Fold:
Amino acid sequence: MSDEPEKKKRPRIQPTLPQQINDPLEYKENMCSKNARPIQLVSYKINSDIWADKHYNIRVQHGDENGVREGIEAEIVVPLIQETFIHVISYALKYGKIMNFPPFSPPRSTRIVLQDLVNAEENFLNVAVEYHFLEVDVYEITIWTAMKEANFKKREGQYIIQLHHDRTILCQYLQGKDKELMCLNRK
Structure:
């Protein structure tokens, strides 16, 4: 070691990245045009009235010929409906017959199945529901039945929305199989 005092290093100036300037008058590319600029972001309120059919309520309270159905209580089913609601609207805009629009014809109303994977054995919580468009900002949702079972009986042509940890998948039951139509990311 030497007897010379240690020289202090000069502080270094850290490089800074150029700041991105947000110019509200800048023209950017959007879905329709290569040269457009945003004017306003508007958020809309949509109301959904959730109902429970008598059949569903009986299954929750008393079960069926196989006994009490576990895990189909409203505290479990309603959050599933709430979480998938915007996805159902998005799928309905693309495929049309997922939601019921006036004039309503009860025997022919479209009923879809919401499926949430509950365990690794491919058991799903299956919730059969109908969505009815009442007004621009009001939808009525009726729960018909629910069961936790891998072999849930689906009708030919029925739509199914499966929840996965990162996305929802819209399927249609055709010729004994779920045919994947489209998927949306969950936020």
Q: What stands out?
A: The longest helix spans residues 74-95. Residues 80 and 116 are 8 Å apart (CA to CA).
